């Protein structure tokens, strides 16, 4: 009898460190420094260092990290910000919240990452920044990004919400651009017990501005130099994240080995193609995503078959940003970004989390195989 395999299981992560988590929460309650307390400053320093960045400023969530981070970079009304259509909507929402003009571009069909030649094609005199989204845990090539940014005088703002500690070409996510946004939403590679986010940067002026923006635009108490907002990383969440951070390397490595096992087991199957990993060991596999490319078996049939067998799955993402009703004002239409649109039809995400066992991975692939009746096994 097969066991259920959930899409994510955060309990596996928390159980072994339950006592330390409770202790950290108790200390915050004893100290009573619930807002911008000691644990926030500690976590900001520790996480920025882990990213290879000089400064970290904790905010309420990843979306705020994008909005406030862009604002602190001096990006706003009249500025064009280039970002991929194939991302979670929060990237686009962050740009709009900063008051800038979003310019969407297509992605590479193999890696699902922003297509940098498409970026080059939309550059105008008003282009100020590009947002590489390190999607599914894989970084956009830093060398190509830096080359492009230098050539066109673009600011790089990384959306690293899915890429905690990801690496490529010797760079770590969060250390390539002027600034970067992270999310600590519970299911991210490093997750809080609720919402959380951070802007990391090498630039002290940007860090200082985010600190002011997250705290009503106050440069000191009751002295407001800009119309900011209230978006702070909770001390309780920072305390939890301080306990979890030391495990992140191990958890990411576990994700990587699970992905390798999936890769190996899926290779002989016709009809499914994993999203390409161009960054080797540096991919941190926030999600394990594959494309259902066989005509006779629709993606939805696979999803239903997995669900019937008790296996969780997801679609990241079913509707690309430019076709979401919320952004109709941007006046994009079907056909504008064909690769993003095809991916939206084809992608599905398999269970992926630290602690997922190799027995479970085998079970997921065995069920998947049964759902691909025409798949041919390659003789070994
Ligand atoms: C999760 C995520 C965000 C937003 O983070 P929140 O903390 O949920 O606001 C932004 N961009 C990407 C790519 C994400 O995956």
Automatic annotation (TrEMBL):
UniProt cross-references to InterPro entries, sorted A to Z: DegT/StrS_aminotransferase (IPR000653), PyrdxlP-dep_Trfase (IPR015424), PyrdxlP-dep_Trfase_major (IPR015421), PyrdxlP-dep_Trfase_small (IPR015422)
Oxidoreductase found in the keyword field: no
Swiss-Prot/TrEMBL keywords: Aminotransferase, Pyridoxal phosphate, Transferase
Stored Pfam families: DegT_DnrJ_EryC1
Entry's Gene Ontology molecular function annotations: pyridoxal phosphate binding; transaminase activity
List of catalytic residues: 188 (proton acceptor)
GO term, biological process aspect, one: polysaccharide biosynthetic process
Transferase keyword on record: yes
Record-listed N6-(pyridoxal phosphate)lysine modification sites: 188
Family affiliation: Belongs to the DegT/DnrJ/EryC1 family.
Name listed for the protein in its UniProt record: Aminotransferase
Organism: uncultured Synechococcales cyanobacterium
